[in-house]
Specification:
Elements lengths: L3 E3 H6 L1 H9 L4 E5 L2 E6 L20 H15 L6 H8 L4
Parallel strand pairs: 1-2
Antiparallel strand pairs: 2-3
Length: 92
């Protein structure tokens, strides 16, 4: 399998690419022939566990945005990472 893929192909077959990465491979994702991001496996020694899962307490507006996002996700609609962060009022 190649280690460079277009964004459309990546999104269409994300499960295939997840398996590919879980087997120790990396993949570079292109958008309009430009590299956008690289997906690499996470090795156990690099993984930092969440020490305090109660740290994030959403505001009323954030709870509403999260509920709407969950509804949209169930309906097949998604947001980009940056749009989600913006709508939740969080800093990147």
């Amino acid at each position: 399998m190649k280690n460079i893929v277009g964004l459309k192909e990546f999104r269409k077959n994300v499960d295939v690419w997840i398996k590919y990465v879980k087997h120790g491979n990396s993949v570079v994702v292109l958008k309009r022939s430009e590299p956008v991001f690289k997906v690499s496996p996470v090795y156990e020694d690099l993984w930092e566990p969440i020490t305090n899962p109660q740290e994030f307490t959403p505001t009323t507006a954030q709870k509403k945005a999260l509920a709407k996002a969950e509804k949209n996700l169930k309906g097949g609609k998604t947001l980009s990472y940056h749009d989600a962060i913006r709508k939740l009022g969080l800093k990147n």
